[in-house]
Amino acid sequence: MKAKLSPLSRLLLIISAIGLVIVLFVPLWRIDLEAPQYPEGLRLLIHTNDLKGNVDIINGLNHYIGMKTLHKDDFIEFTVLPYIIIGFAVFFALVAFLNRRGWLNLAFALFVIFGIVAMVDFWRWEYDYGHDLSPNAAIVVPGMAYQPPLIGFKQLLNFGAYSIPDIGGFIFIGVGILLLFSVFTEWKKNKSQKLKMNRGKLAALIGLIFILPGCSAKPEPIVAGTDACSFCKMTISDKRFGAEAITKKGKIYKFDDIHCMLAFLKSDEITRVGVGSVYFTDFSAPHSLVNADHSFLLRESSLKGPMNGDIISFSNKDSLLNAAQVFQGTEVKWSDVSK
What we know:
By secondary structure, the chain is α+β, with helices and mostly antiparallel strands.
């Protein structure tokens, strides 16, 4: 089964999609220039599809040092970038709808790749404009390049240049953080679910190891007047003569006397091989069930159990000897009776 996303992750995807839409209407990046002759500073604002701020003044200054002027038509990025951002916004919303962890991982990977490519392209643009200088410029400083910093501060002649994200850039960073958080929490949740599943399987296996043998070793009390004999189908009326057989798979068969149980064990419905354990009711009070291997059997034709059975069982030898004085019976072994 494919892993589904948590409601929180789906909400963060929707928020990320909305954030990218907002990016289309705010500046992505800014380059601030400070110099004594410009106490208020100059600012270049880079949008997804335009250059704004003090573009004309900056172009005039760049002309003196031989840098190319800045025009939005010179950048193919301004043509494709809005569509890429819209595409990511739609994709994030679609991932929230599809509700699959695999799609979330893909969305995060693609967004990270896009961010890396965008920063590399930005650095390339800055490098070209800072190094491709006209030899006929009014001011030529041998060996001097005017590449602005990718991010942070750099001194360019008497200008201090600051390159930092603007509102749109910080939204981009925030979207990346939200996606990373979602990917991490979904990975952690999936890992936890697998661990719980493995623990559950282990617990079930351990339970089977202990339960199955227990089923074959623990009999179920016979309720006279309610339980029916598994062989003759008659209601068990006197549990003193009762017997019980439990298969190796834990199924319980109850009988109104040992005679019925022997007939059942020799029938086609069940074979002795399939029986895990056999129990007899202790004829003496409180008439508890005792494993056949630990029972003492007394046979006497005059006993007349519910189905004319002539065998009764006791949990100890003393009880059998006392009953033998009353019924004048003979002690027999289960191994001989069951042949």
